[in-house]
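Exercise 7. Given the components listed, write out the predicted structure of the assembled complex. Treat all entries as one system.
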Amino acid sequence: MTTLQSNTTELRTCDTTGLPVFKGAEFFIRLNAVCAVVFLLVGGIAALLLALTRWQTVHLLGPEWFYRVLTLHGINMLIFWLLFMEIGILYFACTTLLNSRLFSKHLAWASFVLMVSGAVMTNSVILMGKADVLLTSYLPLLAHPLFYLGIILFAVGALLGVFNFFGTLYIARRDKTYAGSVPLVTFGATAAAIIAVVAVGHGALALIPVFTFSLGLTPEPDPMWYRLIWWGLGHTSQQVNVTAMVAVWYLLATLTTGARAPNEFVCRAAFVLYILFINLASAHHLLVDPGVGAGWKIWNTSYAMYLAVLASMIHAFTVPASVEIGMRLKGYTRGVFDWLLNAPWRNPGFSAFFLSLVIFGFIGGITGVTLGTQQINIIAHNTLRIPGHFHATVVGGTTLAFMGLAYYVVPLIFQKDYIARPLARIQPYLFGGGITLMSFGMSFAGSEGVARRTWDIEAAGVYGASTHMMLGLLGIGGILAFTGLLIFVLLTVGTLLIGKSNKGRPMACWGVPKTITKIGAEAEREVDPHNTPGAMTLVVILLVAFAVYYFANWGALADVWHVR
Amino acid sequence: MEEPKIHPVQKLMDNPWLLLVLGLVIPVLSYTVWGWVEISAIAPAQLP
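Answer.
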């Protein structure tokens, strides 16, 4: 009886979804989400300053502050903002979706305190000018010991959060709080958690020896070895983002359109391919390193890696197909794209999700596979084409998807309805459009040879009007994206402070497609889940675009490498 | 009553601990250990 009462007080039923919300987990989801938004703002301000510096005509920052702000931007955007969000997502996926309490509140506290103190320590050292070493902190560049310690503390905190997730999976299965397999979103979160363990393990292996070296306790680690191990953290942590983003796509698709996966077994198999093979992509960063051989490079960036690409191609079909099936079940069955035209485009949860899918797939995915090809990489390595690629994956893809998620997390977990809703409806378009422009600007400037991580290009004296136009596009895209980011932060913080409470009633609806014909079993009989011509058409367009871009790059390689 | 037959891949997908082990072992062997061995095998450069 005591247990029952205690469980009841620790639990509420969501008035919108009917799902159980465990108050212990809810508290930590809130904490992590708030911190995520704070660090997003820090990284976003740094992003604006950088965009206005790489826009050569403006060239805002001096060299010293450029590299300092670049370090700040990389760490806040690629590590702090995303990992705080991901820990929140893990806690949601293992409690609410599995109908289970959180494994340990003490562990959740330890995780949170370590992550916050690590992030504050790292940012302070960077702003004091003691760590102008960029995110990668390649040796022999050396920062203040507290820079490394801050990242190590943050990583240990994140790892404790991941252990709490696995602990909750264990108690949920032991207590039989769910039947059968875990839900697809939880499975995707599990894949992200496994990849996170690999990332943090490599982080410890790379950074602890550099930390002790910076204290003068141990000799300098081999810089080539450091690059190998560091990228086991650097790129793998981005694969955590990709996997969590795909899980969020499935969640947002369900929340906004009632999406139905065409085949859950296939979707899960794609996540398994991520778990097994996606981490090999770290090798892309060492494609021009002389220390590792061609066999290692070719195996890790192509033969085995393509199994992870296969997984992405599966999701590229199953995610839009899920939406198409959900919409067809609601009666949107005319033609190939009736389902897409009638999708809830004014719902920021949907627009952020679908724009994220398109930007990630068409720009990030196509450029990623092409740049990761060993031969083509030689004409793109360390140019602005690389940030052009990963701003489409991590920002246009993951960050935009997480913003879409926030439009549901705040009303459902914080129980506050968003303020200024018309502004929220345009925010994903502004942010997604800005990032797309910026990514194009970076990619084309990079194609003309502009280096990444470089304060000034005029010293070379070789860049003409077209390069400056592309850098201008980068700057304008950056301003638009920052405006979108600022709107998101102001709306979210404003909602937490002055938003109207929705306790005791469903959240204010962002807009979902109405069911226009038969519902229930009758509609199920008429809609063939294997007949998704719209999603199939989108996938064919993606493949054609990929083929054109890929072979154009082989053509570009042939232009610089004459074979007689 | 006979237990429903579960596909072996489905059994793998329902076992997060086995997935965790495989997800650690494959990249560590393929990327980290192999790469580490190659870097360790480089002879020191002979200075002129």
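Discussion: The mean pLDDT of chain A is 94. The longest strand of chain A covers residues 11-13.
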